[in-house]
Amino acid sequence: MKLYGLRAKRGGLQYYEEHIHYTLDGTPDYIWRKVQAQVNSFDPELNIKVPLEFVTSLCKFENLDEHQWLKADFKLPIMSKELVNIFLGIREMKHKLYPVIIYDEKNHDAINENFVAFYLLEPFDCVDWSRTKLNQSNGQEYFNPQNAKYLSNINYPPIFKINFVQNGKYSNLAHFVSESTKEKYFEYGITGAQFEPPIG
Fold first, then answer.
1. Which of 65, 90, 101, 180 has a CA-to-CA distance to 149 between 20 and 30 Å?
2. Which of 143, 174, 129, 175 is nearest to 156 (CA)?
């Protein structure tokens, strides 16, 4: 089974550019390394202030609702409530939602509350360990998702994370979809995700 990494559609955005900007980024109220470590370990309680507040960056305020998934400088995906409902309608998943408020950079009286931060609270066990070889580095073995083999005889959720260790650290920021489910995205009404090259 092939897997595809998922992320917000970038369109013409460069890797360092965002649709929206997190207002606490770069302040003592948001220590991104700590939040990233919590997300990587599936900590159910993140050290963040809610509601999460953003301002428009390279997306015009009036165009926000044209997107299902917004590219942002935050450690959780910012998705439309519509997209999250589609995912959960396909299959219930252990998750947590954080409320999001997006302000118009040019007019802070204008707000959008149609998005949430979507946090999956557990990984999905889909690695075929009988056919997966671990990589070797400095005398240690580690799991490389690029070289892994994935089970084909299981029912995949519409979006999931893999629990793996890379360079001695857990890495659970990436989201994936299986090849079989990817083919149904358009049928489900999911158009706001960008697919990475397949692995497995």
1. 90
2. 175
